[in-house]
Write a structure and sequence with these properties.
single chain; 490 residues; alpha+beta; Jelly Rolls; five-stranded antiparallel sheet; five-stranded mixed sheet; 14 helices; elongated
Length: 490
Amino acid sequence: MSTDATTTGPAVQAPQRLSPAELRELFLFTDLRDDQLDWVHQHGDVVAFPEGTEVFEEGEASECFYVLLSGTIAMHRMIGGDPVEVLRTDQRGAYFGAVQFFLESELQPTYPSSVVAISDTTTLTLPVREFADVFRKWFPMATHLLQGLMLGFSRGNELIGQRERLLALGKLSAGLTHELNNPASAASRAAEALGDRIAGMRHKLAMLAEGKLDRDKLRRLTVSQEEFVLKARSAPRLSALQASDLEDELADWLDEQGVSGGWELAPIFVAGGLGVADLEGVCAEAQGEALEGALRWVAYTVETENLLREITDSTARISALVNAAKQYSQMDRAPHQWIDVHDGLDATLVMLSAKIGPNIQVVKDYDRSLPTIPAYAAELNQVWTNVIDNAVGAMSDGEGSSGTLTVRTALDGENVLVEIGDTGVGIPPEIKKRIFEPFFSTKPVGQGTGLGLDVSWRVVVSRHHGDLRVVSEPGDTRFQVRLPLQERPS
């Protein structure tokens, strides 16, 4: 290899060069003038890399521009501390390395990725500094245009991407805050009420101890109290009509026993799973003036257990929401991993529950036998967010949203199918052709960037080598995402 070109890695170098005629067969050099082609012939070395050789490593100084002549190479980038394959090709003439050599040298000082020879590979290798100098002389106007285009595109994409992420984060943060506030408020109210009930229970117990109940009756009443606690823990959930009927029956019985305020005690006993038969045992141990105190003591006990159960349920809900947020964001997880698509779908539905609202019925038609698939989980969660958000929007009439949101999974040949459907107004044919175009939006100005479905398409198709399409008619719109079961070469 000549001193004009520098390569990295333990390459096995072949001291040869391509002739001008052979160079002209490569699409990059087909239209060069003879003198330009002769420069490439004089400065371009053919370098061989055995299978498994690292051609260059991400972060190294970018010294060479490579053109693939034979073999297969794989390109990797470090993401979150893990190497992620972003490209694999065996196309003759494909180029890599310092591909933006025409920019000012300080704008691309290092290789942005690593490249490994998957099979025995040969490349045409050009020294980047010399190539950049002569390229600017050959094509001065093109160089200026390319520099402006690359820099403008890069900065524009960065700003738009930041805005898209901030918009999504704002929506999810608002929804998560709302969802966390409900169980947190419930737990706070229950804890406050619990303090009052415990104080009341102590007061009633003191009154019972000062009353005419003998020690044996008080002991049996305490045993009954423990049985009522166990019953309250497993009390069945009742419909409003069932609860109302039982409360009426119990209130009438309490009135017959001469207990004042029976209408207040009846809902507490019913919520704790207690009926007339349970309370008749209390009557056997406490009669007369002691009966009402005993019943209210039992009521405080049952209500205390119900409040404890409410606190437990609320804190469990908070924990589930936090876990869903971690699953959605893929916090502390590798970007590329084998995943169960249902985990991301469930986490996204939880995160968007406030957006979905109470009037949209969510139907999960999952095939739980599906295998795990290789994917970028956090990016797929963004796809589910965009599609579900659009589906909810399609079922909105301006005053609210109502309808059915269906999330279905199934095996479709060599792919996992995720289908998200809604019962909204549908997508007109003239709009359907454009929905995956960047910046195209049917939402009012200021309510959408027009990038949600474009981002989704690029994540599914470009990143995962899958397929994203839509089937729509009024009342039945379905976005279908197909993801391969196995890794596919880029």
